[in-house]
């Protein structure tokens, strides 16, 4: 069973798929969980308010959506 702390977080100023530079003021947050990879954009100044655990949690929720019964 994967956990939030299993997500490997990388920050990038280049788009994870195209390699294009990020727009001014944006950073890409890239996460890998097992064989899954996901990413999202964030305002660079927002990163100063977040911890690595916050980024892991956001990416975990993208990569490992909870199923509701």
Describe the structure.
This protein has 69 residues and is α+β, with helices and mostly antiparallel strands. It has one domain. It is built from two helices and three strands. The mean pLDDT is 94.
Share of residues in helices: 10-25%
End-to-end Cα distance: 18 Å
Instruction: Determine Rg (CA atoms, Å).
Output: 13 Å
Order of SSEs, N→C?
A: EEEHH
Please describe the biggest sheet, giving its number of strands, its sense, and whether it closes into a barrel: 3 strands, antiparallel
User: Oligomeric form of this entry?
Assistant: single chain
Task: Quickly count the helices.
Answer: 2
Strand content: 25-35%
The order of strands across the largest sheet is: 1-2-3
Tally of separate domains = 1
Write the layout of secondary structure elements.
Layout lengths: L7 E5 L13 E8 L2 E8 H4 L4 H12 L6
Antiparallel strand pairs: 1-2, 2-3
Task: Give a quick summary of the entry.
Helix content is 23%, strand content 30%. The protein has two helices and three strands; from the N terminus they run βββαα. β2 and β3 (36-43) form a beta hairpin.
């Amino acid at each position: 069973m994967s956990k939030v702390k299993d997500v490997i977080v990388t920050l990038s100023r280049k788009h994870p798929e195209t390699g294009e530079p990020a727009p001014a003021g944006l950073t890409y947050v890239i996460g890998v969980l097992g064989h899954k990879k996901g990413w999202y954009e964030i305002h660079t100044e927002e990163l100063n308010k977040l911890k690595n655990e916050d980024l892991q949690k956001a990416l975990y929720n993208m990569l490992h959506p909870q199923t509701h019964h």
